[in-house]
Amino acid sequence: MAKFLVQKSEPLTGEVTISGAKNAVLPIMAATLLTEEKCEIKDVPALRDVDVMCQLLESLGASVDKRLDENVVEIKAEGDIAFEAPFDLVKMMRASILVLGALLLRTGRAVIHLPGGCAIGKRPVELHLKGLKALGVNVDEEQLKRGIIDARADSLRGTTIYLDFPSVGATEVIIMAAALADGTTILENAAQEPEIVDLANFLNKMGARIKGAGTDTIKVDGVTSLKGVSHNVIPDRIEAGTFMVGAAMTRGNVLIKNVVPDHLKAVIAKLKECGASVEMGEDGIRVRGDEAEITSTDIKTLPYPGFPTDMQSPFMALLTVAKGPSVVIETVFENRFMHVGEFNRMGANIKVNGNCSIIPGGKSLKGAQVVATDLRAGAAVVLTGLVAEGTTEVSQIYHVDRGYEKFVEKLRALGANIMRVEE
Ligand code: EPZ
């Protein structure tokens, strides 16, 4: 198994170019099933999850030309498409559920064996199914008890759907299904993440009629067919936030390129509260941690536009060394403090009580053997490794490879002392 070896490093300096967003490209790739014509997707990050989604689409019968060295994937789902997603691929990537709506529209059926929970939570999909049933989809309840989604739909009819929680995946699955349903669908309490907007923009280019993406109410007027298009994926706001935090906590000075500041308002606000300087310029966002002391702040994760849950562990890395105590409350996932144990191996002395972590801060951390407990937590322990005395050895780094393209290369270009070793 590969590992990262991270040594205490100089402040990060220089510039880094952010890759395309993993959480935008995955639903967009799923949406290519909605047309028989070729779709060209650009600025695709070369990530493990993108590979898995390519394999999934190929297993369903789509032809996929994956040119990740050019960050391009071309997909053409022409002719017969299978309706069953292979379990060995679904268990590698929960986001496989994103093909559910498109499969139903394309084949009239979808069979997806649900993986169990993962490190950060149970990851139920009852909201996805609530929306699809409202559109006229029949779900086999006996199969569901065995963890298998076996759904059928002859035709879908638009309706009004309320989401009990603004689930990102449920919003994406429902608008994909509604795009080709008969009539109008109103989705209330929808997720507002930028990745939803990017998916809606892709679908509208294909000929869909979606309004309100990015707000809590999305209106979809069903159309009869969609065409193949070319699309550039938005930059990854979580990768950008990770490097911004790294610049601040190492007391560095880094220019983050290919980033949309609007997507990072909560993270920028919190970095400024901690004493970092964050300047928006023509060619990107410059983050500096070398002009003032980095001090503590409190974080509460919320659905967008609140502070993103995916930034919770990277930001906690900064709080372990910031001056003063911090409180972090995780409201989105029920078990997303697995990284606290890893920070504590390095001397962070964090206490957890339910969905609340107390970080005393001001620690001089020591390198240790740690584990990446999810993809964001893996990046977070690399960041603490950059400021900890000695060597930090990070294992289970396949998690990191799922969400960060060329992570080691980008960090080394900023002066980080990190290397990947194959055991
Ligand atoms: C997406 O996951 C992202 N993944 C996650 O990023 C991200 O953390 C999450 O949204 C929240 O922003 C992709 O886009 C591929 P949710 P998703 O449905 O769609 C509960 C990363 O690090 N819920 O908004 O699965 C659920 O249990 C990954 O890149 C229900 O209760 O997130 C969770 O507690 C990790 N019932 C909360 O909502 C449902 O039917 C948020 O889930 C659906 C969700």
Describe this structure in words.
The structure is a single chain. The protein folds into 2 domains: 2-19 and 235-422, UDP-n-acetylglucosamine1-carboxyvinyl-transferase, Chain (Alpha-beta prism), CATH 3.65.10; 22-232, Enolpyruvate transferase domain (UDP-n-acetylglucosamine1-carboxyvinyl-transferase, Chain), CATH 3.65.10.10. Helix content is 33%, strand content 24%. The protein contains 15 helices and 24 strands. The chain has helices at residues 22-31, 48-60, 87-90, 100-107, 126-134, 141-145, 168-179, 194-205, 237-249, 265-273, 312-321, 338-345, 375-387, 398-403, 407-413; strands at residues 2-7, 13-17, 38-42, 63-67, 72-76, 84-85, 109-113, 138-139, 148-152, 160-162, 184-188, 209-211, 217-221, 230-232, 253-257, 277-281, 284-288, 299-300, 326-329, 351-353, 356-359, 369-371, 391-395, 418-422. A 4-stranded mixed beta sheet has the order 22-23-1-24. Strands 2-15-17-16 form a 4-stranded mixed beta sheet. It has a 4-stranded mixed beta sheet with strand order 4-5-3-14, with helices on one face. A hairpin with a 4-residue loop joins strand 4 and strand 5 (72-76). The mean pLDDT is 96. The structure holds ligand EPZ.
